[in-house]
# Entry
Amino acid sequence: MLIDKEYNWQGKTIMIAEDEEINYLFIERVLMATNATLVRATNGKSAIDIASNNPNINLILMDIRMPDVNGIEATETIKKSRPSLPIIAQTCYESEMNLADYPTVHFDGFISKPVNISKLLELIDKLI
# Structure
């Protein structure tokens, strides 16, 4: 993996809300080099629970299509209690990003799959 810039997010915690194992492992591998602490949620309900119970989370990568509670609904709920917590939507279904149907949801960024590593790291760096 060639990355143009080194990132050091030691002391920062990033939650990866992703139900697909292969997608999680890819993102985990990319972010391991940043020294950030990683936390995983495998569904929207656990993402809500983790964000509610872990004030140390500095940023969330939120998959849109997840079991139990989808990423849009999870983001809506999380933002009610933690409005300044940056949440980046990630999906391969760009049509799902028609957020007009969800006026109370606010993503701080968007990354499409397959993930462009440089764009992902730049976006996280900007928000974290």
Notes: The helical segments are 21-32, 44-53, 71-81, 117-127. The mean pLDDT is 88. The beta strands are 13-17, 37-41, 57-63, 87-91, 109-112.
